[in-house]
Design a protein that fits this description.
Blueprint: H1 5-18, H2 24-31, H3 35-47, E1 52-55, E2 61-64, H4 77-89, H5 98-111, H6 114-126, H7 142-154, E3 156-163, E4 169-182, E5 185-192, E6 197-202, E7 206-215, H8 226-236, E8 241-247, H9 251-258, E9 265-269, E10 272-279, H10 282-289, E11 301-302, H11 306-330
Antiparallel strand pairs: 1-2, 3-4, 3-7, 4-5, 5-6, 8-10, 8-11, 9-10
Helix pairs in contact: 2-3, 4-5, 4-6, 5-6
Length: 345
């Protein structure tokens, strides 16, 4: 590696692309060369047009900064295939990115080695996005997401303008921790320095994010991870309608059937659990209730105003059931389904 200059330069460039900052000592150890060689190789990259910045001090080192043009990216086999898959599938909740993703995928396929081209071509040929009602909703600006992601990675304080659910808009300053994609909504988990507490910010309500250049030591998140924090906050959020019931099924089964957040389903024993649902749209609760059997009536509670919506949906289903039963009677059994749901005699 030491004597092979082109290979060493490519390896050095690859390292600079994988992390924000590297110290000269770390790069020298990775490449098996001296610090003097690293400095010369950095100068060669700069001559080739790569904007490698150097900083001094205890936290100093080298980093690949943003330049006038995008430098070539070095991807290994698994990274290349992962990017191809992501370009095809990871666009939910991001505004105006679908067409751009397809163009990027086409460019990637053109330069892939033959051993990988078939895999990516197969993905492109056999994968098609299907817009479905439950995956649509507010979309986030990709530029906003990119800025926030970089700030999370670098532990850099950011400022931005935020609009609350009540429509109130104002400036915020926060220490970003993570971005969480709860399809189709993206959330920023951050410590709000103005309020002195952890907060959850919807990316689609956030504008003009700007890094301050001030790096901080990461704070300990008050949860196992960012996804768990978002789930807990969403479960505790106030809603117009609420429904509580004891369900004769284990908690894992209830969570899977209702697609509920973890904190909304709690086990009572191995065969019974409690279900707590909340939503501003009553029909969201109806959809979840259709997937489970409920316990005795004295174990059911919630918002009284929800009752009329449940009754309305129940009447619609009952009319549909009676209509199907009437068709069955008129046809003398024709069209009856067997136990597997298939049409049979």
């Amino acid at each position: 590696m030491t004597q092979d200059l082109p290979a060493r330069m490519l390896r050095l460039l690859s390292l600079l692309q994988t992390r924000r900052t590297w110290s000269g000592t770390e790069l020298a150890e990775r490449l098996g060369v001296t610090l003097r060689t690293i400095r010369r190789d950095i100068d060669r990259l700069r001559t080739l047009g790569y904007p490698v910045k150097g900083t001094t001090g205890t936290a100093g080192g080298y980093r690949l900064a943003a330049g006038a043009a995008l430098p070539p990216l070095l991807l290994d086999d698994e990274e290349a295939v992962a990017v191809a898959v992501a370009l095809r599938t990871a666009t939910s909740g991001v505004a105006g990115i679908e067409e751009t993703a397809v163009r990027a995928l086409a460019k990637l396929e053109q330069v892939l080695p033959a051993r990988l081209r078939h895999q990516v071509a197969a993905i492109q040929a056999t994968t098609a996005p299907l817009p479905v009602p439950w995956s649509t909703g507010p979309t986030a600006d990709p530029t906003v997401l990119a800025t926030l992601a970089a700030a999370c990675h670098d532990h850099e304080t950011v400022t931005f303008t935020y609009r609350t659910g009540k429509g109130e808009t104002g400036p915020r300053r926060a220490e970003p921790h993570s971005l969480v994609a709860a399809t189709p909504v993206w959330y920023l988990v951050a410590y709000d320095t103005g309020l002195g507490e952890w907060r959850l910010f919807r990316a689609d309500r956030l504008t003009d994010p700007a890094p301050t250049g001030h790096r901080v030591t990461p704070r300990a998140l008050p949860a196992a991870d960012a996804a768990a924090y978002v789930a807990a906050r969403l479960a505790a959020a106030p809603a117009r309608y609420a429904f509580h019931a004891v369900v004769p099924a284990d908690a894992a089964t209830v969570r899977a059937r209702t697609h509920s957040l973890p904190d909304r389903v709690r086990p009572l024993d191995d065969h019974t659990s409690t279900l707590d649902l909340a939503a501003d749209n009553p029909f969201h609760i109806v959809e979840q209730l259709l997937t489970v059997d409920l316990g005795p009536s004295d174990t059911i509670g919630g918002t009284p105003e929800l009752a009329s919506h449940l009754e309305q949906c129940g009447q619609r289903l009952l009319r549909a059931a009676r209509a199907l039963a009437g068709q069955d009677d008129e046809g003398g059994g024709a069209g009856r389904t067997n136990g597997n749901g298939a049409v049979g005699p």
